[in-house]
Amino acid sequence: MGLEISINDILPRVEYRNCARHVLSNWSGRKKEKTFEFTFWKVVKSTTEEYNKKEEDLYKLDEGVTKEFFSKNSKAWTKAF
Predict the structure, then answer these.
(1) Coil, strand, or helix at residue 71?
(2) Considering the domain boundaries, does residue 45 fall inside one?
(3) Do 78 and 20 touch, CB atoms closer than 8 A?
(4) Is 28 within a domain?
């Protein structure tokens, strides 16, 4: 988190991406249910039209964890490979 703040201070207009796999792996210790992981990947791979519906499905599984996920700027998620 500190690195992200520093980068934004130095390079405020630079766009960056977060690998969705790494975002999920950072949470694997907190949420171990396969259904959550499966639904997360549905959200990541969804089209713009499908995104909101699938995001709601994730909230239904665990609202607290989902709020923390989406607080990390989900618009910057990308599937690298």
Answers:
(1) coil
(2) yes
(3) yes
(4) yes
